[in-house]
Amino acid sequence: MFSDWRQLPLATDALQMGELAWRGIIAWDKTEGARAPHKGYFKHQCEYIVWGTKGPCHKAEHAGPYPGCYRFPVKQTDKFHLAGKPTPLMEQLVTIVPVGGIILDPFTGSGTLPKAAQNMGRNFIAIEKTSVYAQVAMERVESTPVPVYLQ
Questions:
Q1: What angle, rounded to 10 degrees, do the helices at 131-142 and 112-119 form?
Q2: pTM (2 d.p.)
């Protein structure tokens, strides 16, 4: 779950209230192009990824160790939603799930995580309540040829 600094405590609480085991926080550095609220303040250059598991955390024997901080700029050509994330960032994040594994995205927005999961050979369950964005997500996923991964 992505969160900025203001909602980080609430995000970690929500994860645990959902009966998930809180496993940690990963920083996403949006690079120097991130916005600053105004002069005299620090830039809001990072978002945080709160992650957890349902049940025990099985080691990702297929890959890793994974970085605790990712650095990807926001590119407007890859942003289809106000809270859109870079596809290359999401492709890196989904690699913790084994090829053929399932990723749940309960706030899919414009479908960046499903697209990244598809690109990386992972399955996904995507949920989006806003019909306009659900349609964008479906179009993005349908426009990507399904790759074949052999183990």
A1: 20
A2: 0.82
